TrEMBL record:
This is Lon proteolytic domain-containing protein. InterPro entries: Lon_proteolytic, Ribosomal_Su5_D2-typ_SF, Ribsml_uS5_D2-typ_fold_subgr. GO terms for molecular function: ATP-dependent peptidase activity; serine-type endopeptidase activity. GO terms for biological process: proteolysis. Coiled coil: none annotated. Pfam families: Lon_C. Residues 153-241 form the Lon proteolytic domain. It comes from Streptomyces malaysiense.
Amino acid sequence: MLSRLTRPQALALCALPVVALLATAVFAPLPFSVAQPGMTANVLGSNRGTQVITVKGADTRRTSGQLRMVTIEATGPDARLTLSDLAGDWFRTDRAVMPRDAVYPSGDTLKEIERHNTAQMRQSQDAATSAALAYLDLSPDKVKVTLKLADVGGPSAGLLFTLGIIDKLHGDGHGGDLTGGRTIAGTGTIDAAGKVGPVGGVGLKTQAARRDGATVFLVPRAECADARGSLPKGLRLVPVTTLKNAVDSLRALETGKGSVPGC
């Protein structure tokens, strides 16, 4: 049959399967999610009308400045994203296209994911409380800390929760604030011993922090390179590995004495 067609006709006929394949690729759902800078919250204050940190069994102090935990927002696990949906996001610095499995565990339902994130947040809060009280040499049998942050899951606010507890109970240890009156943001997991761990998404989190007024960003040292990649102007990175390291850096920023590490 092809021998009876003109050359242009034959080429057009042969191209049809390729066009159909390309059309399918463009409009077929792909296993990716798109993340962007999310909300931030001052752990020294309130969020949605509820105090983030409350303490019983010890006096708390009035604080100035802010300690802002940061988040990223991602398309849901059930979102059907196509190549045409993702094309523009590949080239934006305020978006990140990531494999869905890197954002949501494969095979989990939305409810399972929510339960998992809630459990991680609860564990993070427990570790933050333990790390802060141990740092201040306070007994958990006498001092009770409650942490509440609506609609946020995962462990990445651990470091900021810990610093918030310390600032409310002890400040810088000399009558001042850990923040020095600044808006400090940051991210990082924490364990009961005060070790800070990486969390992912720091490039987007720095943008959320700067958008909401932060001038200093505490970042797990292992993620310095990722944080530098799209660092907003006016935001200073301070790498940390432990709670003591973070407190010492904040004190040095406040007093102007001592060295403050950089990425």
